[in-house]
Amino acid sequence: MNKEQACFHCFQPIPKGVDITVEVFGEAQPMCCYGCQAVAETIVDQGLTHFYKYREVDDSQGPALIPEELAGLDEAVTAYDDAEIQKEFVLTQNDHSSASLAVEGMTCAACAWLIERQLGNHAGIEKVVVNATTDRVHVTWAAGKTKLSSILKAIHQIGYKALPFQQADLEEQYERKRRSYIRRLGVAGIASMQTMMVAVGLYYDDIDATTRLYFWWVSLLFSAPVFVYSCQPFFQNAWRAIRSKSLNMDVPVSLAIIFAFFASFYATVTDTGDVYYECVTMFAFFLLSGRYLELLARQKAITNAANLMKLIPAIAEKQTAEGWQKVMVKHLVPDDVIQIRPGEAIPVDGVLLSQQAWCDEAQLTGESRPIAKRTGETIYAGSVNQENPLRMRVTHTHQNTLLAGIIHLQDDALGQKPRVVQLADHISKYFVLATLIIASATYLGWYFIAPEKALWTVLAVLVATCPCALSLAAPTAMSGAVSRLNQSGILLKQANVLQALPGITTVCFDKTGTLTHGRFHILEAWHQETSEQSRHEAIAAALEFSSEHPIAQPFRRLAKPVDLNEVENTPGLGVEGRVDNTLYRIGSLAFVQQWHPQLSSPMPQANVFLATEQGLIACWRVDDELRDDATTMLQWCKKKGFHTIMLTGDTQERALAVAESLALDEVHSALKPDDKLAILRKQQHQGPVIMVGDGINDAPVLAQADASITFASGSELAQSGSDVVILNGELTAIRRLFDTAKKARLVIRQNFAWALGYNGIILPLAVMGYVGPLWAMLGMSTSSLIVISNSLRLLRKQAY
Prior knowledge:
Elements: E1 20-24, E2 27-31, H1 34-45, H2 50-54, E3 57-58, E4 62-63, H3 68-78, H4 83-86, E5 90-93, E6 96-104, H5 109-120, E7 125-131, E8 136-142, H6 148-157, E9 161-164, H7 167-202, H8 209-230, H9 232-243, H10 250-270, H11 277-309, E10 315-320, E11 323-328, E12 337-340, E13 349-352, E14 356-360, H12 362-365, E15 371-374, E16 378-379, E17 384-385, E18 390-396, H13 402-415, H14 419-449, H15 451-464, H16 468-487, E19 490-492, H17 497-500, E20 506-509, H18 511-515, E21 516-527, H19 533-544, H20 553-556, E22 565-570, E23 574-579, E24 582-587, H21 589-593, E25 608-612, E26 615-626, H22 630-640, E27 643-647, H23 652-662, E28 666-668, H24 673-684, E29 689-693, H25 699-704, E30 707-711, H26 715-719, E31 724-726, H27 733-767, H28 773-792
Parallel strand pairs: 20-27, 20-29, 27-28, 29-30, 30-31
Antiparallel strand pairs: 1-2, 3-4, 5-6, 6-8, 6-9, 7-8, 10-11, 10-12, 12-18, 13-16, 13-18, 14-15, 14-17, 19-31, 21-26, 22-23, 23-24, 24-25, 25-26
Helix pairs in contact: 7-8, 7-11, 8-10, 8-11, 9-10, 10-11, 10-15, 11-16, 11-28, 14-15, 14-16, 15-27, 15-28, 16-27, 16-28, 27-28
C-alpha cells in the first residue's frame, strides 16, 4: 500500500474527494474520514503524539488506532455507565439524571465558560452548572439520549480530567493538587535564588564579556526547568483558552513569561541584547505562590460542605435471619432494618422502630439541641444517635437522602452565577483583550522612545494588569456567604437571592406553619376535680386515638391511654366510648350539649370538652401556637422599616388574633391561592417583596415574589420552589439571612473597588515604565490575596 495516499491514522485508502487533515509533528497529515480526524486531534491535544512515532503495524491485526492512555481512559469512564455504580453519585428522577463531577485543571471563570460551552452543545444534556471555585460541574441529562461516559469524554476532549465527584476523594484530590504546587514552587524558588544571585553579579559594569556570557548560560540552565515544568499550568490554561477562541487571565501571564524566556535565550545564543531570566523564575515563583495560597483559601471555603458527607459511616449493622451483621452502607436498600449504637452517625434516612430516640441534627439544621424522636417518626442521615441503641427501617439511601439533597442544593447555589458574577466574568474577558492591546501599543511606543526598555516595560504591563483579583471578587464572596449560611441551617437554592435581599421593602408572611407552628397544641385546661387530671387526660387520649381530626393529635401525646370499649366516632362532633362501665364523650360543646343542653363553657375560648352522662368533667383550649421567635422576628422587621403583611387562608377571627399579638401592618384572611397572588403582585408595584411561607400551599406566591423563604425537611425540601429553605425551623434565621446578604454585598463592593482601583493605578504606572516586572508580579499576587482574604471574613461568626 502506498502510505502517502493512505490515512495517516488507520492506513486505509482515502476516498476520492475527501480532503481532511490533522497537523501532526508540524505537518498536515491526511485522514480518510471525520472519525479518524477526531481521534487524531484528541491524540495530539492530549500530548500523546509519541503514539504515532513509536507504533508498530501488525500485519495480522492491523495498526493500533488508540494509544494505551486513551484506551484506558475510555474503558474507565465507560464503567461509570453501570447502574449499580451510579447509585452512589447519580440522582435519577423521571428519566432525568444529574451528577456532580470533579474536574481537574480549572483555574478561573474562563475555564468554567469553556466547559459550559463544550457540554452545552452535547446532545441530551439539559443543564450544566460549572463552579470554578470548587472545581465541580453539576450536569443534568436525559438518560435515554446520552450516557455519563460520553459526558466525561466530552470534557476530556478539551483538556480537562473529569470524574464523578466522590466526597471521600475530595481530600485526596486536594492533597494531590497541593503537592503539585509545592513541587513546582520548589523548583521555581530554588531557581529564583540562583538567577537573582547571578543577576546581582551582572549589575557590575566592570564584568568582562566572557564572564557575562558564562553567567547568562548559568541562568539559562536554572531557568529552563522553571519554564518547562513550573510554568506548565499557566501555558496549558492559556492554550485551552486560545484553542476555544477565548481569553483568560493566564494568556497575558504566559505571553510575558514566553517573551522574557525566548528573548533571553536569543540574547544568550547570539551574545547580544539583555537577558530576563530572573524575571522568568520570579514570575513563576510569585504566580505559583499566589495560586497556592488561593488553593488553601478556596479549600477552607468549601470544607464545610465537604465535611457533611464525612458524617456518613461506611459500615452499618443490618438485621438478617442470622442476626445482626455488619454490611457496607452502600449495599443498604429500602425496607432493610438497621441498628445504630449511641454516639454513632445515622447512615441513611428511615423510620424509627424503637420507642424513643434522641438525635443530634446540628450538622443538618444548625439546631444545637438534640431532637426527641418517637416511633414512626423520620430520622435523617447525618444526625447522631445520642442515647440508647435505636432500630430503624431504611426508606431512602444514597443520593435520595435529605443530606444528599442538602448537598445537591448547596452545590447548585455555589455553582450558579449571580448577575454580579456574570458581570465580573464578562468584564474580565474584555479586560484581558484590552491588556493585550495596551501592551502592544506600549511596546511600539517604547520601541521608538527607548528600544532597550520596550520589552521590559511590556512585561510589566502584561503581568500587572492580569485581572485575577477582578475574577475572584464576586465568586469568593458568594462562596463564603453560602457556606456560612449552610452552617446556620439556611440553605440557598438560588444564589441570586443574596443580591435581591438588600432591596426588599415588604415582607409577606403566611400564618399556619410560618408564624405559627402549623400543628395543634393544648394551650389551656380546666378540670372539675384537679386531683383527677391525670385520669381525665388518659381517658381523653384513649378517645382521641379513635379520631382522625388534626385537633386530636395533641391529646395522643398527652398521656398513656386507658382501655376503651364501645367506641363510636361522630364526624364533625367528637368521639364516644366506655371506660370501666362509664360512658364518656369528647368533642365540641354541641356534642356534649346533646347530653346536657344547658351546659356552658367554664373557660373562655375552650373548644374541646370531656363529659360523662352526669356532667362536664374537663375542657381544653386547643389551637395552633405561635412560634416562640415570631414576636422577636416581627419586632426586628419593624426596626428595619419593613412593611409587614399576613396572607392567610384562615378565618378572619383567628388571623386577627395572631396579627394583633404580633402588631402586623396588614392582614388579609380567608384567601385562596389566587387571592394571595393578586395581593402580592399589587404590593410589588410599591417595591420588592419577600414571601415567607410553608412551601406547600404557597407555591404560586413563593414563585412570584422577588425572593422567597420556606421551612422544610425531607421530601418537602425537594418539592419546595422557594429561593431559601430554613432547615432549623427558626423564624429568626431570616435575620441572619438578611445580615449575611448585606455583608456579602459590602464585601463584593470592597473587592471590586480594590481590584478596579489597583488596576486603574498600576496600569498607567507600568505603561510609563515606573513599575518593573518583578514589582508588577508581586502587586498582582498581593491584590488577589487581599480579595480572597476579605471574602473569607464571611466565614467568621464575627462577620455578622
